[in-house]
Amino acid sequence: MVALVVGLVVVVLLLSLLVAGLLRSHADILRALHSLGAGVGDPALDPDAPAQAGAGPTPVTIGPPLPPERSAAGAPTVAGVTPTGEALALPVGSSGGLTLLAFLSSGCTSCAAFWQALSGGAPAGLPPGIGVLVVTKGPELEAPTEVAARAGRARVVMSSEAWSDYEVPGSPFFALVDGTTGRRTGEGVANHLPQLLELVRRAAAEGDTRPAASRRDRRPREGGPEREHSNDRALREAGILPGDPSLYPRSLDDLHGQGRPERQAG
Amino acid sequence: MAVLRAFGIEASLPAGFGGRIFVRPKVGGEEPYPVAHFATFWLPEEVGDFGGGAVTSMRPTDIFAVLFEYGPDALGKALFARQGMPGPLSVGDFRPTVLRRGLPAHVGTQWVFTEAGRPFTFYAVLGAQALAPQLVPSVNQLLATLRVQPPGGVPAGPGGGTAPWN
């Protein structure tokens, strides 16, 4: 019994010493702060009294300065490289239409479903006329071969700058840009494709208050490959196949026939 | 300012410009060389070398420009005798007759030259002749940022892009 009491007394003494040491250490820290001019809650000063130069408490900042408020309105140009090494810059803010930016990573498991959905082009259920652009981090952080393996027919830009410009917190992350106003009409995180489609549908509906005529039709008109295919089709239908002599005229007579009008002088 | 850099060609894009620098996949025995497209409008994924499939989408305020490289066999030919990038261009340099595809109101300009030992043509189209005084300075701004590395400094191509010839 006596031994137990003695033991308890010793423990209490040790704990008292520990508390005293902590109090002293705390007092040393406060004294050091005061000597640095960063006193907090000095009881000698009236907190309601107007601060006098050099006499009042100095505000203390803990940790690094906070970043300025996040700007979620701008829509900077997305510039980077494609997985095949091309350079690509798309001014989504002046594209004339709506563009869905999908910030994805090759290694994130939540992104897999989006890669699969977007690899076939614009996914079913996406409102018509919305362009889709997948943005991964740059080749210094993502392997182009890994990205290429997932991209399929999706248009992909690898650009760490775009992630920084759009202040992407992590992947998957999506932003809908209105290319007529140069602003983001919506952005956020989605974990499933139906959730994304609903977000896009809602953002597009809320953002589109202008008449349809003011939107620019981004669908390519007939020209380039379409025009060439159309010409090929017309020639085939007329019975003119590759190698037909009429495709290789050697004189104006071959072009216009023997009875062509005489060329006007001048 | 967005910077495009690939195949030894670099451009710091003026505000409102987008662009693409690419090499088309090989077709037969033909050796493809880099093509750089610049535009103030959304470029479709498949665009002809000189704007086929794109210039028809231009608004009057739009600009489309191409820097197209030829093979080394073009070097030394009289057509490529001019040394260095063209510019600054004037309104008078843009004419309807230069257009590859004549479209109402459009005007174009084309320059053939050798830069850093590589043969090029620069072709630009404006959406409206009447707006040339406002648009030509933007073309000059783009031209001033174009940089070309000598052939030795050109990294190997990707071995085949995604866009086919047209």
* Relevant CATH superfamily of one domain in chain A: Glutaredoxin
The helix/strand order of chain A is HEEEHEHEHEEHHH
The overall pLDDT of chain B, averaged over residues, is 88
**What best-fitting shape of chain B do the alpha-carbon axes yield?**
globular
Number of domains of chain B: 1
Radius of gyration of chain B: 15 Å
Name the structural class of chain B. mainly beta
User: Helix fraction of chain A?
Assistant: 25-40%
N-end to C-end Cα span of chain B: 31 Å
Task: Report what the structure shows.
The complex is a heterodimer of chains A (266) and B (166). Chain A has 266 residues and is of the alpha/beta class. Chain A has helices at 2-35, 112-118, 144-151, 160-165, 193-207, 224-237, 252-256; strands at residues 78-81, 87-90, 98-103, 130-136, 156-158, 173-178, 183-188. Chain A is 33% helix and 14% strand. In chain A, the strands form two sheets. A five-stranded mixed β-sheet of chain A has the order 5-4-3-6-7. Chain A has a two-stranded antiparallel ribbon with strand order 1-2. In chain A, strand 4, helix 3 and strand 5 (156-158) form a beta-alpha-beta unit. Chain B contains one helix and eight strands, in the order E-E-E-E-E-E-E-H-E. Chain B has one helix at residues 132-145; strands spanning 3-6, 9-12, 18-22, 35-39, 63-69, 107-115, 118-126, 147-148. The longest helix of chain B is centred in the C-terminal third of the chain and has 14 residues, at 132-145. The A-B interface holds A 76-77, 79, 81-82, 84-91, 94-97, 131, 155, 179, 216-218, 220-228 and B 2-6, 13, 16-23, 40-48, 52-57, 59, 101, 155, 157-162, 164, 166.
